[in-house]
Amino acid sequence: MSKFKLRGVPRTGTSAVLTEERPSGLTHEGAPGYARDARGELFLLAVTSLVAEDTFYEAAAARDARLRALVARVAVDDGEWVLRLVGWLRTGVHLRSVAIVVAVEAVRARLEAGIAGGNRAIVSAALERADEPGELLAHWASRYGRAFPQPVKRGVADAVARLYSERSLVRYDGQARGYRFADVLELTHPAPRDARQSALFRYALDRRHDRADQVPGELEVLRARQRLLAVPVEHRRAVLVGGAEALGRAAMTWEQVAGWLQGPLDAGVWESLVPSMGYMALLRNLRNLDEAGVSDDVAAAVAARLADPGEVATSRQLPLRFLAAHRTAPSLRWGWALERALQASLGAVPALPGRTLVLVDRSGSMFCRLSRRSVLTRADAAAVFGSALAVRAQRADLVEFGSTSRVLRVRRGEAVLSLADRFGDLGGTDTAEAVRRHYRGHDRVIIVTDEQAWAGRRGADPTAAVPAQVPVLTFNLAGYQHGHGPSGVGNRHTFGGLTDAGFAAIPLLEAGRDQHWPF
Fold this sequence. Notes:
This protein is of the alpha/beta class. Among the domains are: 39-218, no CATH class; 355-510, von Willebrand factor, type A domain (Rossmann fold), CATH 3.40.50. The protein has helices at 38-47, 60-77, 79-91, 96-112, 119-125, 132-144, 150-163, 166-172, 181-188, 195-208, 220-229, 236-241, 245-249, 254-261, 267-273, 279-284, 286-292, 296-307, 309-315, 319-328, 332-345, 378-392, 416-420, 431-438, 505-510; strands spanning 25-26, 32-35, 355-361, 395-401, 405-408, 444-449, 472-476, 482-483, 492-496. A 6-stranded mixed β-sheet has the order 5-4-3-6-7-9, with helices on both faces. The protein has a 3-stranded antiparallel β-sheet with strand order 1-2-8, with no helix packed on it. Keywords: Cytoplasm, Metal-binding, Ribonucleoprotein, RNA-binding.
C-alpha cells in the first residue's frame, strides 16, 4: 500500500482516492498516468458508469470487466465498505444498473471466498424500486445461472417485502419483464408485511398463472383500476373532464392514460393530469405541455412546483436532469423555474472564498453521450458543475480548455443554465498548458475533466505548475484507469461522479480535515 502514499508533500486533509507516488502507466492520450488504489479506482469507475455503455476510450465490455474485477477484489477485503458503496450508488446518486452489478459481483466473490454474513444486506441495498428484485435475479441468471444462493434469495425477499405494493404491481409487472412479480415471489418466498400485502402476493401469483377471476376486496387500488378499464372508450374523456381523481385512485400514470384513452393527449387531458403527476413526470413532459397548448395558469402551477426546493429535494433529481429539460423544452415559461431547480439540486456547492481558478475540459473525448438514451454529454456535465462553482465563488476565473483555452466571463447574476450554453468544443486535452497559462496566484484550482491529458513535452502532471501549498481539486467524470496527477495527500485531491456529492468536501479539505467516502 505504500506506493499509494505521497511523500514530501505538505499535508492538509486526505481525500478518499489515493494514487501511487509516481506515474506507472499512461493516460489514453499518452501522458504519464497515475494508478489508484483498488477502492479509489472502483469508486471513480462505479460512480461514472452506466453498465453496457461504451465511453470514448473504453469499450463497454472492457469497462464492465474492469468493474467486475475491482468489485471482486475489494468485496473480499472489505465487505462493509462495499455495502456502503452499493447503498450510496442506489440512493445517493441514483445509479440503478451499476448498483445491481456491484452487488451481484460482490456477493459472488464473497461466496466463492467462503465469506458468510453481510451478503444478504448487500443484495437488499441495491434494490429501491419494485422492478429491481426481478432485474437483479435476471442479471445473476445471465452471469451465473439460475441456481440462486440463499443470501441472494433472502436479500431479494427483504426488498420485495419493502417494495411490492398495488401501485408497483400496476406499474412494473408487465408481461415483457424477464422476471415478473410472481416469478420473484416463487423463487424467494418473502414473508408479507401485513394482510394486505399477503393478498397482493396471492393475486400476483394467480394472475401470473391465469387463475385471477376477480380482484380481492382488500386491494382497493386494483379494484379502482378494474372499474376504470370497464368504462367504454367513448366515455373515457368525460371521466377526465370531470376530474382526474379516479386516475389517482387507480394508480394510472400519464403513459397509461394515453393507451386507456386510445387517442391523443390534448390540452384538456394534460390540464386534468397535471395535478396528479409526479415531479419527474412533469419534468419529462414540458415540451408535450407546450405542444398541447396548456394554459398559462396551468404552466405557472407546473413552474412553481419545479422551482420549489422541497419538491426538488424529494424528487432526488440529478442536476443534469434540469439541463436536459432546458435543452428539450426551451420555452421561456420554464427557464427561470428550471434554473431555480438546478440551483436547489446543487445545494452542496460551496461559496468559495478568495480567488478560484475553475478549468473545464472541453476536449473531444468529453463529448461522448452519458448514455445511449441521453441527449447530454460529459462535456455538458463539466459545464454545469464548473459554472455552478464559478457563479457561487467570491471571485472566480472560469476557463474552458482543450488543445487551446479561453476565459469565459461570468456576468453578475448570470444563470448557470445560460452560462453552460456558452461553452464550446476545443479539440485535444492540453491540461498542463491550460493550468500554466491561467494560474495567477489563485487560492485554489479546480479541474473538471476525464483526466485523459495529452502526452508530449508538457504532458506531465498538470498540477505541478501550481505551488504545493495551493489546493488542486480534480473532478473526474469518466473513471478511466489512470489519472492525470497524484491524489490523496497534501493539496492534491480527486473526486468522482456526475453529482454534487464531492463539492461538500472542498472546505473540509482546505480546513485540514480528512475527507473519506461520501457514504
